[in-house]
Amino acid sequence: MASWFYASEGKQQGPFPEGQFRDLVAQGVVRPDTLVWSEGMAGWQKAVEIPSLIGGGGAPPVIPAGGPPMMGSGGYAGGGGGGSLSVDFSILEFTWRTLVLVIGSCFVIPVPWLFVWYTKWIVPCIKVPGRPNLSFTGNAMTLVPWFFGFIVLAIALGFVGSQLLSNLLFIVQIVLYWLLIKWMIANLASNGQPLALSFTGSVWAYIGWNLLFAISIITIIGWAWVAAAQMRWFCRSIEGTRREIVFKGSGLDILWRGIVAAILCSLIIPIPWVYRWIMNWFASQTELAPRGAQSRM
């Protein structure tokens, strides 16, 4: 007999045997708008959408059975199964939003708000197995002190004119990107519930990867293998999910796609299609696998 879970105040409740769970429904503990999950469901759904549970709604899509889709204090971590990510967005919408972002960024001041606005659009375009309705909940005001603090520092160092301080500014910029990554991952949500994910890669490792990538440019082609290795490190550093995040793309895959993308982007018009093609490939190479699956292979 199936076991059921339900969400209450952002926390996972259960498992409950089906009979006991139906008693909770009858008592009004589980309401029509309560998010519920049972084995065989792709993700959390409102109770009213489950046939014969409360009534109404259509049948949810069926996937192979997995583990509970929540974990931690309120985080929704999806089922125990695996699968690749995917990306899908309208070329027209991508084009006008990107133009607004680029043009607006020329005025400097709107950058934090434009970045969050753009991120809130692009994140739901990413489809993750077992995590329906992905969204971004970050607030632009978090970025304001980082962004404008960096601008003030850059202007001050520009007046000093020291090469050593200019190199220091480069390191500060990398650290800010590291903070940005941690902030973005911590603000991902599914079905309106925080995923409780975190990026645990150290700032020193992140600086090291970026310096290695910069050095690899002089090899002409070596940057692609560094990029692939960095992506694998990045995926391993995301915690808060019962599934491993694995990047399977190779350096050769990145290299030839990078060359094709550079050639096509030089023609300007194909840029939106190239961007979607590259994003979809990276997504398709990023998989969610049961913990320990890689070690058994």
What does this structure look like?
The protein has 297 residues and is α+β, with helices and mostly antiparallel strands. Helices cover 47% and strands 17% of the residues. The protein has 10 helices and 16 strands. Strands 2-1-3-4 form a 4-stranded antiparallel β-sheet. Strand 3 (35-38) and strand 4 (45-46) form a beta hairpin. Helix 4 packs antiparallel against helix 5 (163-186). The radius of gyration is 22 Å and the shape is globular. The model is unreliable at 56-81 (pLDDT under 50). It comes from Bradyrhizobium ottawaense.
Instruction: Please state how the strands of the largest beta sheet are arranged side by side.
Output: 2-1-3-4
Residue share in β-strands? 15-25%
Structural class: alpha+beta
Count of DSSP strands: 16
- The overall pLDDT, averaged over residues, is 84
> What's the tally of helices?
10
What Rg do the Cα atoms give? Answer: 22 Å
- Low confidence ranges: 56-81
Query: Can you give the helix content as a percent range?
Result: 40-55%
Kindly, what is the distance between the CA atoms of the first and last residues, rounded to a whole number of angstroms? Answer: 32 Å
What's the main sheet like?
4 strands, antiparallel
Order of helices and strands: EEHEEEEEEHHEEHHEEEHHEEHHEH
Shape: globular
